[in-house]
Amino acid sequence: MHPGRMTETLSVRALNRATLARQLLLAREPLPVTEAVGRLLGMQAQEPKPPFLGLWTRLDGFQASDLNEALRDRSLVRATMMRATLHLMTSADYTAFRTTMQPMLDGALKVLGDRAKGMDLEKVVPAARALLGQGPRTFNEIRALLQEQFPNVNDRALGYAVRLCVPLAMVPTQDRWGFSRTSQFTLADDWLGAPVADDPALEELMLRYLAAYGPASAADAQTWSGLPDSGAALERLRPGLHVYNDGRGRELFDLPDAPRPGEDVQAPPRFLPEFDSLVLAHADRRRVIADAHRPLLTTKNLRVRAVFLWDGFAQGIWETEYKRKVATLRLRPFDPLPKAALEELTHEGESLLRFLEPDAKETIVTIADD
Q: Can you name one GO molecular function term for this protein (predicted)?
């Protein structure tokens, strides 16, 4: 922005369209899965299934086998990253940015409180690396073996410390959604054939974040990453960025050449899976979901519900059921939907059910009676 020039204000709808464009949600793109995950800068993946649905809703012709193959050839990896949660990442991004995440991961250890009593990370981390250097192990095995070496330390604390302080990769299986219920973990550098970068790359990470989720504020970037230094990095990058206003007095940073479609660009109906990063990537989430509806997004046990988009915004949650070869999709709108929305969502929902349950003899899309 030049001195004396008024800062342009971006409406919620303008932010919506800009973010949808970068999140591959204005049109299904004909991209390889690894390139798509790179464009998205990862996909939240506490559970194995949601990234499959998230890619189906974004990519033209996506098949579950595409993601499974990328996991098995190790171009994609499921590992702990942003906000100390499991993410699906490209192997290149994981090795580039894992060290950048370490200060946040170290801070997450504080949640252990008294359970960390007696734990010496300078001893636990090498011990864990030695155990995992022998081959992949489940966390039940890791905790039990570490407790033998550190009998006076809480076993859960030992396991949590290993998750956060040792770069690990989850080992994919032949299961439909890529991983078993009791997944094995292994050392990431062994699995990927490359060490994680020695030096943090926070500024590069912030540029990639803006490419995937911008325009965004410093608070948005910190919410997505969990890194408190995100705002300082954006300040350092300011000379090369465009700066906007969000209408509430907050600055929004963006890449000069990033897509910012007009507000009138049509947004197709889309079904997002549980834990989709789109609904978690900003402090101010009005670009995706109204403030009044945001409390409905998360369950009491902190599950992030699957939402459907119509006209670009989250208009309700959805769930499926499969019984006796009948696949049912239930929509739970936040507010009554117009007829056109129901027709469009029904058509898209039937396609979703055919992806989820290819053996179904019947597919049904219905509005839940609550």
A: DNA binding
User: Which residues fall within 8 angstroms of residue 91, CB to CB, at 6 or more apart?
Assistant: 74, 75, 76, 77, 192, 194
d(CA 229, CA 103): 10
Q: Which residue has the tokens 């290819």?
A: 358
How confident is the prediction along the chain (370 residues), in pLDDT tens digits per residue? 444 456 899 999 999 999 999 999 999 999 999 999 999 999 999 999 999 999 999 999 999 999 999 999 999 999 999 999 999 999 999 999 999 999 999 999 999 999 989 999 999 999 999 999 999 999 999 999 999 999 999 999 999 999 999 999 999 999 999 999 889 999 999 999 999 999 999 999 999 999 999 999 999 999 999 999 999 999 999 999 999 999 888 999 999 999 999 999 999 999 999 999 999 999 999 999 999 999 998 888 888 999 999 999 999 999 999 999 999 999 999 999 999 999 999 999 999 999 999 999 999 999 986 5
What secondary structure, in 3-state letters, does 71-121 show? Answer: HHCCCEEEEECHHHCEEEEEHHHHHHHHHHHHHHHHHHHHHHHHHHCCCCH
pTM, two decimals, is 0.94
DSSP string covering 251-292, please? Answer: EEEE-TTS----TTS----EE--TT-GGGTS-SS-TTTS-TT
Instruction: Give me the domains of the chain, ranges plus CATH numbers.
Output: 1-112+168-179+191-288 (no CATH), 299-367 (3.30.300)
CA–CA separation, 105 and 161 (whole Å):
9
Q: What are phi and psi of 165, to 5 degrees?
A: -110, -10
